[in-house]
Amino acid sequence: MHLPAVFSNMFDFSGRQVCVTGAASGIGRATAVLFADLGAQVFVADRDEQALQELVSERPSSFRAVVYDQAHTSSIEELAAAIGDVDVLINNAGILLYEPLLQLKFSDLAKVVSVNLTGAITLSRLVGERMVARGQGTIIHTGSQLAYNGAEFRSVYAATKAGISQFVKTAALEWGPHGIRVNCVAPGRTLTPINQHLLQQPEQYSEAIKRIPLGRFGQPQDMANAFAFLASDASAYVTGHTLVVDGGWILP
Ligand SMILES: NC(=O)c1ccc[n+]([C@@H]2O[C@H](COP(=O)([O-])OP(=O)(O)OC[C@H]3O[C@@H](n4cnc5c(N)ncnc54)[C@H](O)[C@@H]3O)[C@@H](O)[C@H]2O)c1
């Protein structure tokens, strides 16, 4: 079937510059590959240098690697300087903390907040400033369905992701008049290394699936598709929104 031009043009990213953070693995990797497939030049940013190099070697004409650490402001500043004027920022790098609240180590608390919240906001602040100056661009964060649900042992993680959904609303409010859209994709349980702890426990895994109306965990591709929608002109009138992509888990 031939797609009508009005539709395919919306998803044509030829000549566009996209940056995907956390691109060395999981959701970020699938998203970087999809944007390359859609014609974009993609800065793939991550702290995992080796995995980044492997990714770039698969498609050297589409990808450019930037190694950085989202736990450090100076490193985020270097990333922002390296990518310059991008059209799309997929602000996706993040870490999970799985720790009962009464055993929470304060160093772990600080680390998760610094990567998932402070670091992600710092990057959007820096990239958004350049977008506002140009009057064009769009930013999409990765939140989590856990911004809406309670989930034992993930209090800090859930708090950082709820913070991101709230950040997105205000950034969209402030930058909308400058032509910048800011949104968030909130994945439910997705088959990536971040869920390794769960995948290694078959009983917990099958219990988790029972809670998902669509009867399966998400694939990284499911999330990549949502990012492409929110970055495309198909969502030109959507801003400040968190799109939950979770197979219906939050419904009950
Ligand atoms: N997989 C899920 O079930 C799920 C659910 C909800 C939200 N998320 C979110 O999706 C995003 C991607 O996670 P994923 O599931 O693909 O996990 P993943 O572990 O496969 O990928 C995360 C990537 O982020 C990078 N990263 C981590 N800390 C970093 C830092 N300090 N600086 C730079 N890069 C860093 C890692 O090296 C890795 O490549 C995260 O923000 C995560 O919180 C995932």
UniProtKB/TrEMBL annotation:
Stored InterPro entries: NAD(P)-bd_dom_sf, Sc_DH/Rdtase_CS, SDR_DHRS6-like, SDR_fam
The UniProt record lists the keyword Oxidoreductase: yes
Keyword Oxidoreductase: yes
Alphabetical keyword list: Oxidoreductase
A GO MF term: oxidoreductase activity
Pfam family, one: adh_short_C2
Protein family per UniProt: Belongs to the short-chain dehydrogenases/reductases (SDR) family.
Protein name (Swiss-Prot/TrEMBL): 3-oxoacyl-ACP reductase
Organism: Pollutimonas thiosulfatoxidans
Upper taxonomic lineage: Bacteria, Pseudomonadati, Pseudomonadota, Betaproteobacteria, Burkholderiales
